[in-house]
């Protein structure tokens, strides 16, 4: 087992190095990067699309779409909105890593962008262990997933900068104890910024867009 | 990278061997085993609990609960219903493996049971690669997860014996193209047995319980 541990350590070290290089490249170009993680079906692509529609027109955004299978469903949706999108197929892997993002960044005109949104593979476990070099880690949770998820997937909630809780339009039809959910988050990540949104009604998007726009660096 | 590939192969081989031993142990004891996989929040525990409530009283069932974090939320719920439940904490791993199940089986009185339900870690990617030694692989999908999941997580849908599509009570509030979903399944796994259920209304459980009861081996 020593061999295995040694190899895992080497993989993590080299991921860390490439992540740092990705971050430097984004910073040089004045681009803010966000890593969007979630369970399958929480609404990553829907929240990203609604965000793209609502961002001020002076914010130039590129999207990197990660999928475990060789499908382009999500990248096609983004491209149809008129935004540059690059698809990464992880070949069965349960997360993106820094090298995959490095390859995708080469396909985007970084000097023309302010923001890069990376949609990670749908998974609440593996993506938590791999830095990509982005500036903020965001999880999209959703009401129908249930209020106990912070307790069951603590690692991903611990490393977060922003939480978006999606599908609030379904609250009337689902038993979701908001206090219990927020208590779980508070235990792992005190003071975490939380936005409650619904892609269906548009609720909550103003606050999220205001925060994101204010956070973007001014481009020279 | 050769080292890494060699080690991965050794891990998979030994998992396979232990899975075969688990299967032999279940067969010796006349116990049917099912491996329940799903995305986080699809309703694995709710479907298992509803199944336990509805199974005929002559079916003796044990439950093995897998979680990535050291929590006993699900095992406690099962135990509260009066069924033997064993908790496995994977220590951050994104799936159960055959050795974990072997350890859990030792804690159950197999000679007194007809059925073992294993609740895997909430994840649509990793569990697909690890046989546990159970007789049937079941995925619980859910309406709010969306109709494109078979296209995005093909490996887990390919190896399935039964699919339970949960939360049908939410169909009126969600755009879910049933034809598109079923077409994706049919492409990967032609003729797959599908049960549409709702834990909230009880819809569909009769058919699922009838199928499960008819499938169980007669105990000597």
**Topology as H/E string of chain A?**
HEHEHEHEEHHEHEH
CATH class descriptor name of chain A: Alpha Beta
Number of helices of chain A: 8
Structural class of chain A: alpha/beta
Distance between the termini of chain A: 51 Å
CATH topology of chain A: Rossmann fold
Strand order of the largest sheet of chain A: 3-2-4-1-5-6-7
The tally of strands of chain A reads 7
The CATH H-level superfamily of chain A is P-loop containing nucleotide triphosphate hydrolases
For the record, the count of structural domains of chain A works out to 1
Alpha-carbon Rg of chain A, integer: 17 Å
- Interface with most residues: A-B, 37 and 36 residues
In terms of DSSP E residues, the strand content of chain A is 15-25%
Roughly what percent helix of chain A?
A: 25-40%
Topology:
2 copies of one chain form a homodimer.
Chain A: H1 2-28, E1 32-38, H2 44-54, E2 61-67, H3 73-80, E3 85-89, H4 98-105, E4 115-119, E5 136-142, H5 149-152, H6 154-158, E6 162-166, H7 178-188, E7 193-196, H8 205-215
Parallel strand pairs in A: 1-4, 1-5, 2-3, 2-4, 5-6, 6-7
Helix pairs in contact in A: 1-4
Provide a concise account of the structure shown.
With 220 residues, chain A is of the alpha/beta class.
């Amino acid at each position: 087992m020593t061999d295995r541990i040694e190899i895992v350590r080497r993989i993590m070290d080299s991921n860390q190095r490439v992540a740092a290089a990705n971050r430097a490249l984004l910073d040089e170009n004045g681009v803010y990067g966000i890593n969007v993680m979630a369970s399958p079906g929480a609404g990553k692509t829907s929240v990203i699309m609604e965000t793209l529609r609502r961002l001020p027109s002076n914010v130039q955004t590129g999207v990197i779409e990660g999928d475990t299978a060789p499908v382009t469903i999500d990248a096609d949706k983004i491209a149809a909105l008129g935004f540059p999108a690059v698809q990464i197929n992880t070949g069965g892997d349960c997360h993106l890593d820094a090298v995959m993002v490095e390859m995708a960044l080469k396909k985007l005109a970084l000097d023309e962008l302010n923001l890069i949104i990376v949609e990670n593979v749908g998974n609440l476990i593996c993506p938590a262990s791999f830095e990509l070099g982005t500036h903020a880690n965001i999880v999209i949770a959703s009401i129908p997933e249930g209020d106990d998820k912070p307790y069951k997937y603590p690692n991903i909630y611990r490393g977060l900068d922003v939480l978006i809780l999606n599908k609030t339009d379904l609250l009337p039809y689902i038993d979701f104890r908001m206090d219990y959910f927020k208590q779980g988050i508070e235990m792992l990540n005190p003071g975490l910024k939380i936005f409650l949104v619904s892609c269906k009604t548009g609720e909550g998007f103003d606050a999220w867009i205001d925060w994101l726009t204010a956070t973007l660096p001014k481009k020279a």
